[in-house]
Amino acid sequence: MEPADRETVTGLPPGIAAAREELTPMLSQYADLCAAHEDALVLFQVGDFYEAFCEAAETVARVCEVTLTERSDSTGDYPMAGIPIDNAAPYLESLLDAGYRVALGDQVEDAEQASGLVDRAVTEVITPGTVVEDDLLESGTTNYVAAVAADGNDDSAGTTVGLAAVDVSTGECLVTAGDADAVAGELDRIAPAELIAGPDAPAFEPSDAERGWTTHDYDAGVFDRRTATERLEPYLPAPERRFDADAELRAAGAVLAYAEYTQGDDGPLSYVTRVRRYDPRDRLRLDAAAQRSLELFENRGLGASDTLFDVLDETSCALGRRCLERWLRRPLVDADAIRSRHDAVGELADRSLAREGIADALATAYDLERLVSRVSRGRADARDLRSLHRTLAVVPDLKATLAGAEGERAGGEDGDDLPRTDHLRDLRDRLDELTEVRELIDDALATDPPQEITEGGVIRGGFDGDLDALRATEREGREWVADLEASERERTGIDSLSVGHNQVHGYYIEVTDANLDRVPDDYRRRQTLKNSERYVTPELKEREEEIVGAAERADALEYELFVDVRERVAAETERIQALADALAELDALASLAAVAVERDYVRPDLRDDSDAGVEIEGGRHPVVERTEDAFVPNDADLPRGSVAVITGPNMSGKSTYMRSVALAAVLAQTGSFVPAQAAALPVFDRVFTRVGASDDIAGGQSTFMREMSELTEILHDADADSLVLLDEVGRGTATTDGRAIARAAAEFLHDELGATALFATHYHGLTALAEERERVFNLHFTATREDGDVTFLHRVVPGASSSSYGVEVAELAGVPGPVVDRARDLVAAEEADRARGASGDGRGDAADAAEPSGESGPAADADDRDGDSGDREGDPDARDGDASLREFLAEEASADGAEFEPDSDSPTAEQSPERNRSTPATDADPGAPGGASPDLAAALRDLDLARMTPIEALNALHDLQSRLDDDG
Q: Which residue windows does the record flag with biased composition (Low complexity) (predicted)?
């Protein structure tokens, strides 16, 4: 049988719909639930299983790998498949992974007490973004469902988009607004599992389709302003005054409506007490490209678990892990707040006993946020409340530890009370012991209660007098029954007589057939078996009624008492959530302190003045140093607004160096110390990266197109307070275009944006910018060559590199020997042509495509085995403005076989005679291959590059290149 189509298994299956009028009462009930939940696959409780029928059953059987059976009744045969309720989690996870929403149709009344058909209702709709079961959630993570709404402005450029996200498992709710690009960045940062789109909202696609969210439409009515306002009123007083944009209010109301729907439509979620509006500009912005290239949370290389978060995560509990992840996704930009975290981390780093005591105490703490959400929804059992009690019990110990009561001298080194920092003192004050809640749970609940809360054994003896009396009656009755067997044996003389009990017939006295003649007259026959008879006496019947009645009343009373205790605990939800926040922050700070001590990190000197740059001594990459046996530290001295052009061989460490600088900034603004001997850092507002090669074939983007898209975002959004990392810009296209793009981008960063930038490149001609731009300087990574062997020193020094050592890297990578040897021959031939061209032998085409090579140092900057033209003879001060770029474009034309004669008025024309020569072919036939037409040369001379934007210059270059190709 072919797999069922998705539309046939969500909502009412066609096989059920076709027989709707003939269905049995139970299947009719199933059909009603399916019709009410058109977007979900309904699982219907039948006894101890969740069942699906017809096409839905086929899907459940296929996805969950369970047996497809059949239900037959007077109306027909219906395919059926089920999963066990007590082990439903793995099957539900499979359905979620397959993209289905699952509606659980539970029995909502006791089957034994139902007079007819057991009443059922959908108690929960499980979706990727609204999962609340611990078995389906990873500990210490967030799981958001988000909603977006737009303000309806027809002008897309002026449209405000509202974004709201809620973690249904913890009650956290975040709201913000911005233009479409800003909201797209926030979605990538929040990384919701599910996105609800308003009818007027733009489309948002995740930057990573494999790990992105699922988008679907929900009831458009929940995005109505009036409806959203009414939905928000139980959560916020006067909600219309709490948001800056109408789109924010509508998105917040919609996402909470969806959250309520998935939790059974039982009304407001009382544990959602933290609806927080925020401005993305209040945090260091790290878009998806930056998070990916800096490997903050994901490493797609061989070491998939080697990420910055893995390095920092020494947390002891789920609360701290979730907090640390939030901090790393949204680092601070407020200098005072950053220093406050640094103060706390520094104190915990100094106080090893306190740090270890905090870790030990929090290792026994449960996830308070998820616990209290279950308590508030009325879904917590007695074991959940006991877990809450055990977590509250560590709070007094934590306060004592922070106050220095465990071996640390009270008063500290300076005689001040511990903690010494304001941050930790505030945290200590926020550690609410919730004594009354802890005592209530301890007094009311058994130490080790059963998981089932309706069958007794939950309430501790002595908590309620009526319950104690019922339990005493039950206990005394059972003791009387236990003694009955011995007394009846003695009375009747039947040694084999026994007293027993079952659920159907209750208590009985069993006598074998051989002894029936000795049965007393007061025995009343209850059941006949093959070889025996079962009896009951009037007294036993009376005692049974007492026992059963007392037990049932006691179980019912226990349940009532438990529910009352749970509601009293739920009334303190906000206090418990505030305590959870404090515990989470304390755990995260202790984790950062532990990492600082164990890995020898240093506190950065944070500078918030406008001209502060990056100064790092002995900086290290926090992830690489953990995975490598040895790591070479490097210094970084980047004045504010400077552009460092970094050259050097492949594998020498350029990308690692750039990332280490960016990660130092991210760590510092997260509140962490940094891996260095010393560091002074500014406060950046954004970190941009264009590092590494990747594509998006599914989205229709090549590697180069993706690179250009990311470069576009950087050049549009970066400013003087941004840190920019660019690695090998322009390498994915033709050499001429790529070099032009790289140079134009570097100039734009320097001239227009004023951003602090690290620009790694193999286009050695870009090093000339250091002579033309005030805030551009060169760095390169060193290597040595001895007897043909190259050693990468991984050390950065001032100046430009002499070679990229591409052939040597290919050999190290294992490229076959014949390929390496042939490559060396080609390089040698090109260098020979270059040398002959430099001596004026007339072989201009090959010579103009390359530059003389050197061994090391700045004098060798001209070398570029990729064909870069970097000859910088003459007065460097004359190479500025459009003349400099015109010369650069002329070099590119030369590299592709054309000749270019600069304007005779240009000082470069006089100072660089090598660039004015013409080959005989060009003099004889301007249109011959290898020569450029006079019209093309004139067009090059007429370029007014000083008045062009970088993009206009690139377009002009592309047009000239096309003309050159046509002439060729």
A: 918-936
